[in-house]
Amino acid sequence: MSSSTTAPRERHDRLPVRLAALAVGTAVALGGFAVAPATAADTVTTADAATLSGIVLGVGADESQRIVTWYSSADTAQVVQLVPTASLVDGAFPADAVTYAATGGANIATSGGYNRHAVLTGLQEDTAYSYRVGAEGGWSQAYSFRTQSFEGDYDFLFFGDPQIGASGDVAKDQAGWKDTLDVALAANPDSELLVSGGDQVETANTEAQWTAFLAPDKLRQYPWAATIGNHDVGGKAYEQHLYTPNTDRSAALYSNGNPTSNTSGGDYWYIYKDVLFIDLNSNSYATSQGGGGDDAHVAYVTDVVNAHGADAKYTVLVYHHAIYSAASHAKDSDNKARRVDFTTAFSDLGVDLVLQGHDHVYTRSYLIKNGAKADADEQPGAADVYAGPGGVLYVTADTASGSKYYDITAPDSSGTSGAGNGADPLDASRYWYNSVQNQEHVRTYVKVQVRNDQLVVENIRSGTCAAPNAAVELSKVSWCGPDSGASAAQPVGSVVDSVTVHPYHGDGQEIQVAVPEAAPGEFGWTIDGHNGLVDLGTAVEKDGTYFEAAGQLNAITVSDTRRSQAPWSISASVGDFRDASKTFPGSYLGWTPAVVQAGAGARAGGSIGSGFDGGTGLSVSSTLGYADQGHESGTAQLGAGLDLKIPSAVETGSYRATLTITALSS
Known about the structure:
Blueprint: E1 9-18, E2 52-59, E3 66-72, E4 79-84, E5 98-101, E6 103-106, E7 114-120, E8 128-135, E9 138-139, E10 143-146, E11 154-159, H1 170-187, E12 193-196, H2 207-213, E13 224-225, H3 237-241, E14 268-272, E15 275-279, H4 293-308, E16 314-321, H5 333-348, E17 353-357, E18 362-365, E19 368-369, E20 372-373, E21 384-386, E22 393-396, E23 423-424, E24 427-431, E25 434-438, E26 444-451, E27 454-461, H6 470-473, E28 495-502, E29 510-515, E30 527-528, E31 533-538, E32 540-542, E33 546-560, E34 568-574, E35 577-579, E36 582-584, E37 589-597, E38 603-604, E39 622-627, E40 634-647, E41 653-654, E42 656-665
Parallel strand pairs: 11-12, 12-13, 15-16, 16-17, 17-22, 21-28, 29-31
Antiparallel strand pairs: 1-42, 2-3, 3-7, 4-5, 4-8, 6-7, 8-9, 8-10, 11-26, 14-15, 18-22, 18-25, 19-20, 23-24, 26-27, 27-28, 29-41, 30-31, 32-33, 33-40, 34-39, 34-42, 35-36, 37-40, 38-39
């Protein structure tokens, strides 16, 4: 807090008040299920109907949307028909089923036929839906997915490079890919997104590889969030098969600067339950190629974060080319360029996590700030990391199919920051930027748990050295298992690596409360002493007219050693509570200040009641504590009991506000 012996001076600290809601409910949420078995090449049996294939469920612009994409042999009007699964009558779609018109166009010549997609909007939470594509007289089989709560915690799964066809045996690659999806979703059936690291196939326009990639039923039951890899970019099949929301197809975001050419490209974003995902076409990295290069991506991320970052609690970037990896691509010149071009911007924009593929190895970086290790004291393999201002975690996923693995390479003497690939001072066998490096030649996937005040990232084995594991089966690698094959393979489902990322909350404290559905529910609170999160738990309904939550402000330490013994005061005010477009006034928050630890002549300010009972609450600056002229020097701690009353008309949500603390001293 500021002090002066001349004129009064104020310091304002932004203290975000975080209200992350967990809706109260009793239903068990399932990730999805299929009404009938299917493959990517499902066809309609009606003689005069179009052949429908390649059906895939994609992510939408938010949790209330999905996108369905497919191929058709005929250029006819087609739709997606959608109905709550509970409304099916003996498996038949009722006459009042909702339809969504499809759009699309002719495929590239090598693919033949036509592509179609439809955006499903207005989905309700905690609902099982069934859908089919086509038209009267020619429907596909029916598939189902389930929405879950639109608020609160959730998990998503990240998959590196299936790259179907990379082993030279499409069938073996398909088997490994399908097994990883089956294993991952059997272990995590409530996962809500499947996020791609790119390289769905080996050869961009080879439809046999796309058919094998799309064969698993899980891709019609859980939304796939696609990413363009270097093996996908060379044709239009990627864009035809995997339509994405909010996609910017500007010339600058294509590697050759030409969106109408026979290449795929573009960047896109979506928000899913308090996470802003931004997906980049990292194939476009140099202006010499014709596109806008890395600068265009940085500008895109900046614009999206500025426009939508306040609507989410976390920002996660996804792109294909791993800039902090450890295998064959670790020293590629293009990745060194991205390592310089991206990292400072990502730190400045408050990015929490970056997910990458391309190098067919698992790595977890140290927290990186502005292209250097954020904390020199962070230890290799640390189970908990605290981001601090600008700290970003970078994760590279190994192959999910087992089609190709790259072995870990050795550091060099090129430096331990920026574009360098020098050794870690804490372990000379690793690159300076990596906390964990792992290659066992077994299939894995990454699980990300999104929680109120942390992201938990785990790398999990989905296979062993046994089939299906194409690269091992076909002797593409000479060993398999931990420690370069010296140790026995670990079982499916075992964890390779796990880290909990504690995000940075600024110099103040964050207050969190959950506003439930109209029915009252349990509530509790926790205090995050490391980052300053104050959790008011879940508000409880009172008298059917309002919700109430209470908790304690983290102690604020005031130290005054001036000889002048001048007076000081600490006050604060709160802004509106927000969850995207939903709001309620900060005046509903009140407090009862207290001196937690005496010293520095500290006295507690007066109690301020919630404005729900009348008045302005903490929407107007109020005194937390103060000391008069002539007080003794020393240190004090100030705290306050928080009282939040919220009208029952406020919508269910996960709300935040900002509490601004002002220190005034003469």
